[in-house]
Specification:
The protein has 465 residues and is an alpha/beta fold. The protein has helices at residues 62-72, 80-97, 118-132, 154-166, 178-190, 223-233, 245-257, 276-289, 303-315, 360-371, 387-409, 449-456, and strands at residues 2-8, 18-24, 45-46, 49-50, 106-114, 141-149, 171-175, 195-197, 215-217, 237-242, 266-272, 295-300, 324-328, 348-351, 419-420, 426-427. The strands form 5 sheets. It has a 5-stranded parallel sheet with strand order 6-5-7-8-9, with helices on both faces. The chain is globular and about 70 Å long. Residues 1-103 and 420-424 have low confidence and may be disordered. Residues 21-35 have a biased composition (Polar residues). Keywords: Membrane, Transmembrane, Transmembrane helix. It comes from Rhynchophorus ferrugineus.
Length: 465
């Protein structure tokens, strides 16, 4: 595992300054799904394999053919032979390459988001828009049906999911709470509907042998990076503070990775916190017990809470500064850390980033992200993007690449995918739309779900930049 970090140099007692280091773990060398710092938007990773940027499925003939038509569009003096020639070339092009059956079609996607995920929703819509505006290499358009929920009620959520299925969606995406995730995950596996999410909000148990889990997380597992960082600094005892089940899961992974009887370090104290005041009060208690002892705090919480804890710590006269070193383990360093907040530079902080802004294509993406209107596109309009939003953006293009792989193998696989009206709901190619309330209690799975899910796990669209 190679982890690039931007960290303050030295131990907790040294002067604050930043340096770049690389941590290598031979145990995980070459395991790209476990890599922590990797290119961000359009260079992501599925839970089971790396993924990266488009462009997808370019064909040499598509661009010149389109240009030739545009050059002569609106000219009244074109001869009939030329028009016939263009039409004839187009027909032959479609006949031999199977493009015309899919170029003008739309693949419907369903999306469910929890309230409070504005930047993730914006990233999703931005990805859909960028794909649909790519006229040169696009085989199909994406049509999104978005629902924003504020309840974990299983009955209401079930009705919403079934409504999405009735729209004929090919896959589900979204970012929801642990309670909502349980229901969505269950429906996904029952009806074999692919579900792609930036991260799993709770531990997902692998299905028994022979069964496929239809939920895919874009975020790589990075608990080993936390362990490697602690080892790099030589910390013998750490304090672990977390605010969610996700943080508890990472703590469990850390415990499982440590060899019993031969642990390099120990978890001195574990505490779940619900707000900033609770965290600061807990730290004051530690300060009273051992004021001059170095304290290494692994802080696993949201970016906003982490910022407030750091600022509150620095401003609290009862808490020392030189004896503390924070390791922010929740992928919060991709968020904007305002340079004008002097408190951020008054204490040692180490963290992880998943968006590699040193890459040109990432910088180009961030420029487009910054140009978005922050009022109409909440979370955008700035030169940074959160890890969750970046992974949501990647999720769309990983799905696109999976669809492209299927179409490259069999161009007419999704032929005529528009809905056909009439009794019962079918696609024009005869595929039946999912029905949660099928007669007799039968469960009719999504016929393309297994294929799409398996192709998702094969996606590797990483480019060398």
């Amino acid at each position: 595992m190679a982890v690039n970090l931007t960290i303050p140099a030295g131990s907790a007692s040294t002067k604050n300054k930043k340096e770049n280091i690389t941590i290598s773990s031979p145990r995980h060398a070459g395991s790209s799904p476990s890599a922590v710092t990797r290119p961000g938007p359009r260079i992501g990773s599925t839970r089971r394999g790396p993924a990266s940027a488009p462009w997808y499925g370019r064909r040499r003939h598509s661009i010149p053919l389109k240009i030739s038509v545009r050059q002569h569009q609106g000219h009244t003096k074109m001869g009939g032979r030329f028009l016939f020639f263009v039409w004839f070339v187009t027909v032959l092009d479609c006949f031999y390459n199977g493009l015309c059956s899919s170029m003008g079609e739309k693949i419907p996607l369903g999306a469910i988001f929890e309230q409070g995920t504005d930047d993730v929703q914006t990233a999703f819509k931005f990805a859909i828009s960028n794909h649909n505006q790519n006229d040169s290499g696009r085989r199909f358009e994406l049509q999104a049906y978005v629902d924003v929920i504020n309840t974990a009620d299983a009955f209401k959520l079930s009705r919403l999911i079934c409504n999405q299925f009735s729209r004929g969606v090919f896959s589900m995406l979204g970012a929801v709470s642990p309670d909502s995730f349980d229901t969505l995950h269950s429906y996904s596996n029952t009806f074999q509907m692919p579900f792609v999410t930036p991260w799993f909000p709770e531990k997902v148990v692998a299905p028994s042998s022979g069964f496929l889990d239809y939920a895919t997380s874009m975020r790589p597992e990075y608990h080993q990076a936390i362990i490697d960082t602690v080892k790099y600094y030589g910390w013998r005892r750490i304090i672990y503070l977390y605010d969610s089940n996700d943080g508890l899961l990472r703590l469990q992974q850390i415990y499982q990775a440590l060899i019993p009887g031969n642990e390099f370090f120990q978890v001195r104290t574990v505490r779940r916190i619900s707000n900033v005041s609770e965290a600061l009060q807990f730290l004051r208690g530690l300060e009273e017990q051992s004021r001059w002892e170095n304290k290494y705090v692994v802080l696993d919480c949201s970016a906003d809470m982490a910022k407030e804890i750091v600022v509150g710590h620095v401003r609290d006269i009862a808490l020392g500064r030189r004896t503390y070193h924070y390791l922010l383990s929740g992928l919060v360093m991709d968020d904007r850390w305002e340079a004008e907040v002097v408190e951020y530079g008054a204490i040692n902080i180490t963290g992880f980033r998943i968006v590699d802004s040193s890459k040109k294509h990432v910088r180009d993406f961030l420029e487009g992200w910054k140009r978005l209107d922050a009022v109409q596109s909440p979370g955008a309009g700035r030169d940074t993007i959160s890890a969750q939003a970046a992974l949501m953006y990647d999720a769309v293009f990983v799905l696109v690449e999976a669809f492209n792989k299927i179409l490259r193998k069999k161009p007419d696989n999704f032929k005529n995918i528009n809905l056909r009206p009439g009794r019962g709901q079918f696609y024009n190619n005869g595929s039946k739309i999912l029905d949660c309330n099928a007669s007799g209690g039968r469960v009719n799975p999504w016929e393309h779900g297994d294929k799409i899910s398996r192709y998702l796990r094969k996606v590797n669209i990483k480019k060398n930049y």
